[in-house]
Design goal:
five-stranded antiparallel β-sheet; Heat Shock Protein 90; elongated; single chain
Amino acid sequence: MATLFDNSAEQLREFLFAMLDSMPGGALLADPAGMLIAANQKARQVLHLAGSSIQNRNCWEVLQREFGVAATELAPLGRAGGSVLVAHREPVGQGQTHLLLSRNDLQSPFRHVGGFFLLIEDVTYPAMVEAQFDRRKRFSAMQDMAAAMSQELKNPLGSLELLASLLQRDLAADADYQRITTQMLNAVRTMSHLLDNHLTFARLPKPAWHEFPVGQAVGDVVEKLRLLGHEREVLFEADLQHQLDSFYGDAELIGQLLLNLGINAMESMPEGGAVWIATRTLPPSRLHPPLLEIRCRDAGVGIPLADQVRIFDPFFTAKGGNRGLGLAIVHHIAEAHGGVVRVDSEPGKGALFTVLLPYNQGAVFREPPHARGNHA
């Protein structure tokens, strides 16, 4: 009886190609010198090799060109078990992903077979989770501070308001004093309103969980944003391509999240322009469940790199900006749904906000059909 590898290398080659294409992540097969032998569809997509031949191409040169790294940064991949984390810039306006490259040497009983695999795994979601955890620690400390400050100042402010009211009553006959006491009362009430905002932030709402049609919820918010943007000459465009229609969460809070992102986008474009809102479903992987991705991209002034780390902190503002809770609330709503949020931006080139929210455990992802790519 003939065995699977009788007749040899051609059957082994076909077997390896089939195995490569079945992998969920990217995979490159190279000979001991690093010359490419095969690449699966995912790797071709990431490395922009689709439709081109990989013959006589060196994997190290391909990786250096695509990721903009020096040969020394790829040195750990020169040995079995080595790995490298790289940042990969997506097409214009699509943000940035984090990829883990790892090497596995071929262990084969065939003398004429040798070389290694390079596996390419998208670890963007874990990287976002880590960044969100660091942000959460700052967020929690600020909530404690806001609650303590509000409690300490509420009573003195209440007393000031009462005394100013009595003074206003006693000096009602004098117009000049009346004006002064009115200004005093307005100032005290403004301070009291600001403290109320701090208390709201310190006691942020929890989601009221239920199943709802996510497409309708997003569409309703986009229509509200279009009305708001009309006077500012801001046009909102939507591209809703999520594959799972039902989402388990709080429809009102998800709507508020998207509304805050849209308003933030409008405020970044004083001269008007277009805002792009898109959704899609990311399939489950070893690192995460099925995810609903919401993206909001503007053509505004952009955010300096130094500010991007703190942009979701409560009351943080870039120079000339408004101090508020809009993006902090976006962070809270995403986290309350077990999700994450991040920003990708360059000054003068707008900003892209990406929110990833896990579907409920009962969600069934329908893998879209896709064409099988060529191997060589």
